[in-house]
Amino acid sequence: MARKSLGNIRRSFAPWADPAAIPQVRFESVTKRFDDIAAVSDLTLSLYPGEFHALLGPSGCGKTTLMRMLAGFETPDSGRILLDGQDLAGIPPHLRPTNMMFQSYALFPHMSVFDNIAFGLRQGNLKREAIAARVAEMLALVKLEGFAGRRPDQLSGGQKQRVALARALARQPKVLLLDEPLGALDKKLREETQYELMDLQAELGLTFLMVTHDQDEAMAMADRISVMERGRIAQVGAPEEIYEMPANRYVAEFVGDINVFEGVVDEVKGEIISLDGRHGPIILDDPDPSLAIGQTVSVAIRPEKISITLEEPAQPTNKMTGEIWDIGYLGDFTMVQVKLDGEAGQLVRVALPNRSRRAERPIAWEDRVWLSWDVEAGILLRG
Amino acid sequence: MNRLRAPHLLALVFGIAFLYLPILVLVLYSFNASRLVTVWGGFSTRWYAALLQNQALLDAAWLSLKVALVSASLATILGLLSALALARFGRFAGRTLFAGMIAAPLVMPEVITGLALLLLFVGLDAERGFWTVTIAHVTLTACFATIVIQARLVMLDRSLEEAAQDLGATPLRVFLAITLPMIAPAILAGWLLAFTLSLDDLVLASFTSGPGSTTLPMRIYSSVRLGVTPEINAASTLIIALVATVVVLASLLIKRDALSRT
Predict the structure, then answer these.
(1) pLDDT attached to residue A1
(2) What average pLDDT does the segment A94-104 reach?
(3) What pLDDT score does A84 carry?
(4) Chain A contacts of B177, Cβ < 8 Å?
(5) B contacts of A123 (beta carbons < 8 Å)
(6) pLDDT (tens digit, 9 = 90+) per residue, B29-39?
(7) Where are the domains of chain B?
(8) CA–CA separation, A363 vs A374, rounded Å?
């Protein structure tokens, strides 16, 4: 696909862009059915050493099944899963070099924090002293020194999450699997823990595979995100790519908010496409060689990329008139809904950042306004 | 909490009286100094002392206790195995039939079970005595143990077992280190239930016991036919005390277990 790359984003860590890089985990055409319903179908994905990868999707998209197949709790119906080049088929969960942090944390309620963390270590041939030293090291890592004697029911949600993390890391897995790691925490704690997990991942240099339905979580933490849709990967990429250059309508709608405009292609000049939209001409900078003149296409514009003005903007295209329909003050920004002029009266969502504290709102309900956006803001929706 | 209002209180008193007044009378008259069952002759514990002299009754009590201990243990082991099969093995051929067959003794008339077992033992030419009664009691009580243990297994968070496995524990280690301790209260409750059921069974024991193996309920029943003596009241009072203790213990175990999971 001839897509423009994002020029302004530089990543120091991008082994997936290097054809010589060897993946640590490889799902090869993996399919898994439950009662004739394909939870995962013909899915291929590579994870690279040290990568923080997020599987993002709504419930039932197969993300958890995919992770559970890597852990060994589910067996693929077809396809292979390789870890460091070794086919994992037939290897039971207790012999796999992966460890998982469960969504419910799954702390053993009849054991102390110490025994929970030591549980995995005791399955090997480690000496008592070595186990105690490793548990102490893990407790220090998750900042829970002094909690070794507590029972899980004497811990707060955040502390339980840390114990679960320490327990999963104690055996030094090659890949750490995180099933909705922050799902059970409240918002404030979630943000804190998010950054701690990222720091930890960078410090340990481990490969993390996370399952989440929360796009903010995935965007903030992951090096790359796989957006999943009904057992398949809709798009794999860095958070910026997923958000700014969604591969299709599903990804654009699932990650972030979009406004969709329809239009008929009337000119393709180099990388610039001109559309005859219902509310006026639209120009976008998103080439697709398969486009034909006269074809009806959809264009998505993110709410924060649209400006609202009372005067008519100077630009000749990408502008529409409407009436302020609704203003939702959300603290950090205000979500404004504008009802476009015309018969259809489409509602457009515009996000306005609240930069100054006491600025008077320039707009009010029922104001007549102009909406406009840059040529590069439009995303051509495929699929 | 709702205050008890007069009609509710009345209903409660009548209900409890209906259920427990006969038992209360029995307990009271076990402390009766008079030999006449219906005439109160003052407080005495002489019938409890007499009980200790009644060798036939003591033998019967000892046999009942042995049968209850052994049959409850066997029933609990079988119950654990069938509960694991029902709760853990997913769908297997004949699962519905198996589940139905396990629950059948709950509704099967005991007389029929007793007769069937008697015919079986006669057909096998088995000597009737301790073991035949014990086996008969296992057939009755294993279903109760199964139901209690299965209910706990179904409630048990599967991710606990998966986490243990994920941390390198073999399936056997997972069972011993995680599953068993987590369902231990239910296993004990199932055992206690099986124990009390065996202890007070009359019907199955009557069918399957032989000469010289008379259980306590059988002994009491045959004594009563010759006339109620305060001695029997005393023996019954002791059984009630034992069964009540065990049942309260079992329900406390189940309740505490349920609380610890919330």
Answers:
(1) 36
(2) 94
(3) 93
(4) 119
(5) 167-170, 173
(6) 888 888 777 77
(7) 54-260
(8) 21
Chains A, B: CB contacts within 8 A come to 61
**Helical (H) or strand (E) element with A379:** strand A379-381
Selection from A106, A241, A57 nearest residue A67 by Cα = A57
Which residues of chain A have a CB within 8 Å of the CB of B170? 94, 123
Q: Cα separation of B50 and B231, whole Å?
A: 7
Decide: pTM greater than 0.90. Answer: no
- Look at residue A238 in the predicted model and tell me its pLDDT: 93
Which residue stretches of chain A are H helix?
A: 63-71, 113-121, 128-141, 157-170, 187-204, 215-221, 239-244, 249-254
Tell me the domains of chain A and their CATH numbers: 15-254 (3.40.50.300), 259-381 (2.40.50.140)
For A167, the closest chain B residue by CA position comes to B167
Q: Which two tokens stand for residue A22?
A: 């060897």
Residue A360, pLDDT above cutoff 50: yes
Share of chain A above pLDDT 90, in %: 48
- Given a cut of 90, whether residue A232 has pLDDT beyond it is yes
Fold category of B54-260 in CATH = MetI-like fold (1.10.3720)
- From CA B120, how far away is CA B114, in angstroms rounded? 10
Q: Does the beta-carbon distance from A119 to B164 stay under 8 Å?
A: yes
Token match 């240099």: residue? Answer: A205
